[in-house]
Amino acid sequence: MIDSHCHLTGDRYADGVDAVLDRARAAGVRGMVAIAVDIPDSLATQALAGAHDDVWCTAGVHPSEAGRDHDVAALADLATNPRCVAWGEMGLDGHWPDPPLERQKLLLESQLEVVMAADSVGARPLPLVLHSRKALAEVLGLLGETPIAGDRFIFHCFTDGPDEVKKVLQLGSCVSFTGVVTYRNAADVAAASDLVPLDQLMVETDSPYLTPEPLRGQRPNQPANVVHVARFLAARRGMSLADFDAATDATARRVFGFSLPH
Ligand SMILES: [Zn+2]
Fold first, then answer.
1. Which domain does 211 fall in, by range?
2. How many whole angstroms from 29 Cα to the centroid of ligand 1?
3. Cα(138) to centroid of ligand 1, in Å?
4. In a domain, 262, yes or no
5. How far does residue 204's CA lie from ligand 1's centre (Å)?
6. What's the CA-to-centroid distance between 6 and ligand 1, angstroms?
7. pLDDT tens figures, 81-128
8. How many angstroms separate the Cα of 112 from the Cα of each of 67, 78, 100, 107, 123?
């Protein structure tokens, strides 16, 4: 099992990240992608990935950080680290009024520029981990203005419905689901998940947030809990957990381009 999206750095876990990683391994999690939220965090996730052969990292700035200025040009160098498997997370969040969407758009556009510049000099074409909350049309609009291939997009923590997921799947993009899909008040998200082919489907925790059922309310969430997301989605599809894991792990390994340690 792979947790394709978790936040592991800083002081998010009172008992320390090593205990969090150990509990994940004990639960059968064989790989974790530590997602960065700004430039210093891109360095921090890189250090963590350098220290653990079952952790990989990313380089990007989260839209919630759009109220501050960022040296996004630094991402180009960060992304050349061999443990870095994606750009992001980046995107737009329309849930809160602050930071304003216009600032978020500028931050996303500036990161897409960095990605395109790296592409143009022949860098590894890393996938893009996209945060889209109540802003899918705007995110798709900005992505559509770039030549970046749709099969490099990962729509993480998908929280829209069936109509929206069809648009994303048409692009050839990947979709990943968090604990939100297990919530009783998210029937639309679960219905969307049914439409995603296994080779475009991944699971994640988005730890320390969004603890899945039946543990909803426990904080912080942790990568060990990705099993509950996987179990929920496997059951909806009438699949065994083992078959579901094998398929979604294969998707994650292909999209991020890593192989699991033995
Ligand atoms: Zn995240």
1. 2-256
2. 18
3. 19
4. no
5. 9
6. 6
7. 999 999 999 999 999 889 999 999 999 999 999 999 999 999 999 999
8. 18, 15, 19, 9, 14
* 7 Cα: distance to centroid of ligand 1 (angstroms): 6
Q: Rounded to the nearest whole angstrom, what is the distance from the C-alpha of residue 210 to the centroid of ligand 1?
A: 10
Query: For residues 181, 185, 189 and 191, what is the CA-based torsion angle, rounded to 10 degrees?
Result: 110
- CA separation for the pair 76, 111 (Å, rounded): 9
pLDDT band with cut points at 50, 70 and 90 for residue 261: confident
Please give the structure tokens belonging to residue 196: 């995603």
User: Stretch 136-162: mean pLDDT, rounded?
Assistant: 98
Q: Is residue 230 part of a domain?
A: yes
Please tell me the predicted confidence (pLDDT) of residue 246.
98
Amino acid code (one letter) for 133: R
Q: What is the pLDDT of residues 45-72, one digit of tens each?
A: 999 999 999 999 999 999 999 999 999 9
Centre of ligand 1 to C-alpha 5, Å, is 6
Total structural domains in the chain? 1
Q: How many A from CA of 209 to the centre of ligand 1?
A: 8
Query: What residues contact 165, with CB distance under 8 A and at least 6 apart?
Result: 158, 175, 192, 193, 195, 196
89 Cα–ligand 1 center, Å: 7
CATH code of the domain containing 252: 3.20.20.140
The per-residue pLDDT of the chain, averaged, comes to 97
- Predicted TM-score (pTM) of the model is 0.97
Query: Could you tell me if residue 261 is inside a domain?
Result: no
